[in-house]
Specification:
Number of helices: 3
Number of domains: 1
Low-confidence stretches: none
Radius of gyration: 15 Å
Shape: globular
Largest sheet: 8 strands, antiparallel
Strand content: 35-45%
Distance between the termini: 23 Å
Number of strands: 10
Strand order of the largest sheet: 3-4-5-6-10-9-8-7
Helix content: 10-25%
Order of helices and strands: EEHHEEEEHEEEE
């Protein structure tokens, strides 16, 4: 079972994402083999690994894990569901804001409290302070996307 309060996410009953996770551990995991889609090396010590249709908390997510010098730095995740659009042809801001609302509800349920930060401008954003860093949910109109961000400090 995932434990968002401790920063641990489970994939297929496997503890998959957690503070101090190393790239080597990810590369050796079954979920890496099952859901990996691409690597983006920023050539500055940061490397992003992307995954698609990853089952977490009974939902499917697109994930991007950012490693700095082979240690997990952050995770960007978004519920991956056709109801929010499958391409730019059926994307709408209203659907994207619904996705953000679903992200917010998931975080409230998993963290069992209200966020520490809430704002509506310049874009909708909530943030929870946690022992290992922070978890936020936002909608960014510049990228036309909503996501949950987990930052490990």
């Amino acid at each position: 079972m995932s434990n968002w309060i401790a920063g641990e996410l489970e994939v297929n009953q496997e503890r998959a994402i957690y503070p101090v996770l190393t790239l080597e551990e990810v590369l050796q995991s079954q979920w890496y083999s099952d859901y990996f889609t691409e690597i983006r090396d920023m050539n500055n010590g940061y490397v992003w690994y992307s995954f698609h249709n990853v089952p977490i908390c009974s939902k499917l997510f697109s994930l991007a894990l950012c490693f700095k010098n082979s240690v997990l730095d952050s995770v960007i995740m978004s519920i991956d569901d056709d109801q929010y659009g499958t391409s730019w042809d059926d994307w709408t801001e209203a659907k994207e804001l619904q996705r953000k609302q679903e992200h917010d509800a998931l975080l409230r349920q998993e963290l069992e409290r209200e966020p520490d930060v809430r704002r509506s401008k310049p874009y909708p954003y909530i943030e929870y302070k946690v022992a290992y860093g922070s978890i936020s949910s936002s909608y960014d109109p510049r990228s036309a996307s909503s996501s949950i961000s987990i930052t490990y400090t």
